[in-house]
Amino acid sequence: MKKDNITLPPSDAPSSPPSKVAQPGLRANWRQFTLLIIVNAFVGGMVGLERSIVPLLGQHAFGLASTTAVLSFILSFGIVKALANLFAGRLSDRIGRKGVLISGWLIGLPVPLLIIFAPSWGWIIVANLLLGINQGLCWSTTVIMKIDLVGPARRGLAMGLNEAAGYGAVSLSTIVAGYLAATYTLRPQPFLPGIAFALAGLLLSLTLVRESHDYARQEATLLAQATRHTDMGAQQTTNSSADQLSFKDIFLLTSWKNQTLFGVSQAGLVNNMNDGLAWGLFPLFFAAGGLDITHIGLLAGIYPGVWGIAQLVTGALSDRLGRKGMIVGGMMLQGIAIGLLPLVHGFGWWSVTMVLLGLGTALVYPTLLAAISDVAHPQWRASSVGVYRLWRDNGYVIGALLAGILADLLGVTWAIGVIGGVTFLSGVLAQVVMSETLPHR
């Protein structure tokens, strides 16, 4: 792996871009930024409907006995979402952002209907294939567009707001779905809100969302000017322009060659590995512990709820304190929280572990995206974000397989303990390989 020497524009780079089309900054673009937050909340709401219901649906409605079989819907979701992230990033660099966003919503429209009318578990798998594409295209694109709009100074804050909206909606949607399932049945009522989410997201994206690719082009122009003026061209080209890097180069840099980007990618993968565990196995674990579906829905919602709300603070905090320490500490806290889960019992104690897990994830999630944005050149940043999100969401695949196999062979407690240990070790690895990416540090 290549040691990092990250090239970033100086603080006195030109503040007035020559084009009136692209004026970066949160204040200058607050209307579009707010609109994209709302759109991303609908994206999160789509996936939140599944988090407390679908594992139970597999056992009770379709009679699945194997934990691995129950978690197969996460496996299908994770594979296609990871690939959709990769293509979303590359297509956003090639053809623009808005078309990718609209395509994601069109693909997501049938998802709630497929789940509502599914006559067999195979239909649930197909629905989650489409949901994975929807999540990959839409969530990736809203991330990229917010990075475009906000400029380099407030990336941590921007990612915190984005992820807070998305996972806040995941939490509320999870709790609502659990309530509807407890009040009515597992189908169709918990999935009816998904129809409204998909239609609202599509209409907003078609009518009000504007293309943001010009902001990235403008930032690339300013970076090139700053590089020439300060004679930084001789340094290592982590921030090389897109003209000099093929997609293969970008993939290898983000995945392995650049130590910091490797550290970010592995942490993202392990983070979503334990999120796949939480999504697929925690409801079964809590049900085996004697909780009813209402309390299972609350526990399933506490974790993304704390995760979402806390990102309002952690994203902005990473702009002040730096990225690396928060990533390392967040991964270790997640590992500890997961490891505690089998050691305690009851709704109260399990609520505490879910709060800790949410806090640990909040430290990590927006900070990883901000670190990618710090390192990657604006012209290939969307592609790099796509590669990172490819690795991150492959964590769902690995998590579902590992949790299912371990649970079937050794029991749920072992599955939870092993993934908790892997998560803690991911924080140790990040400490070893990463460099600080925040420009002024």
From TrEMBL:
<dbReference type="Pfam" id="PF07690">
    <property type="entry name" value="MFS_1"/>
</dbReference>
<feature type="transmembrane region" description="Helical">
    <location>
        <begin position="350"/>
        <end position="375"/>
    </location>
</feature>
<protein>
    <submittedName>
        <fullName>MFS transporter</fullName>
    </submittedName>
</protein>
<feature type="domain" description="Major facilitator superfamily (MFS) profile">
    <location>
        <begin position="33"/>
        <end position="438"/>
    </location>
</feature>
<feature type="transmembrane region" description="Helical">
    <location>
        <begin position="99"/>
        <end position="117"/>
    </location>
</feature>
<dbReference type="InterPro" id="IPR050171">
    <property type="entry name" value="MFS_Transporters"/>
</dbReference>
<feature type="transmembrane region" description="Helical">
    <location>
        <begin position="164"/>
        <end position="185"/>
    </location>
</feature>
<keyword id="KW-0472">Membrane</keyword>
<keyword id="KW-1133">Transmembrane helix</keyword>
<feature type="region of interest" description="Disordered">
    <location>
        <begin position="1"/>
        <end position="21"/>
    </location>
</feature>
<feature type="transmembrane region" description="Helical">
    <location>
        <begin position="191"/>
        <end position="209"/>
    </location>
</feature>
<feature type="transmembrane region" description="Helical">
    <location>
        <begin position="61"/>
        <end position="87"/>
    </location>
</feature>
<feature type="transmembrane region" description="Helical">
    <location>
        <begin position="123"/>
        <end position="144"/>
    </location>
</feature>
<dbReference type="InterPro" id="IPR011701">
    <property type="entry name" value="MFS"/>
</dbReference>
<keyword id="KW-0813">Transport</keyword>
<dbReference type="InterPro" id="IPR020846">
    <property type="entry name" value="MFS_dom"/>
</dbReference>
<feature type="transmembrane region" description="Helical">
    <location>
        <begin position="396"/>
        <end position="429"/>
    </location>
</feature>
<dbReference type="InterPro" id="IPR036259">
    <property type="entry name" value="MFS_trans_sf"/>
</dbReference>
<keyword id="KW-0812">Transmembrane</keyword>
<keyword id="KW-1003">Cell membrane</keyword>
<dbReference type="InterPro" id="IPR005829">
    <property type="entry name" value="Sugar_transporter_CS"/>
</dbReference>
<feature type="transmembrane region" description="Helical">
    <location>
        <begin position="326"/>
        <end position="344"/>
    </location>
</feature>
<feature type="transmembrane region" description="Helical">
    <location>
        <begin position="33"/>
        <end position="49"/>
    </location>
</feature>
